[in-house]
Amino acid sequence: MRLDIFFNGCYERIVQPYWAVITLFILFIISFLSLLPVDELPEVAGSDKLHHFVAYAGLIFFVALRKPSYWWVWVLAFIVWGGAIELIQPYVNRYAEWLDFLVNTLGILFGVLVGFLCRKVFSLKENKS
Questions:
Q1: The dihedral sign for the CA sequence 90, 107, 68, 15
Q2: Long-range pairs, 32-41, Cβ under 8 A, ≥24
Q3: pTM
């Protein structure tokens, strides 16, 4: 099976109808994990900044892949949301780090780039909504 046929099939069956649900679910998971009060952060493989980057790139990816006419509103909203989380974290026994905010924003920009590139490479149709 060719990759473009597989990708287009997944796009039509999953991304087109459910992109907003998938995106909001990812947003919920990121928000929950970012604001969960903990005495000590668990040890996980990889860098904290890499986790932020990947999470926020994944957050915006389905929006960029679907590319609704108002996609840029989602981008701005997620950048603001990332900043708001950093401002709230000290109130839930976490640390606010502005470098996290920067990495979140870079992840969002990277996710948009990857989503748009996938649209181009796999010749996905433009959306009017």
A1: negative
A2: 34/85, 34/89, 34/94, 35/85, 35/88, 35/89, 35/92, 35/94, 36/92, 37/92, 37/93, 37/94, 38/93, 38/94, 39/93
A3: 0.89
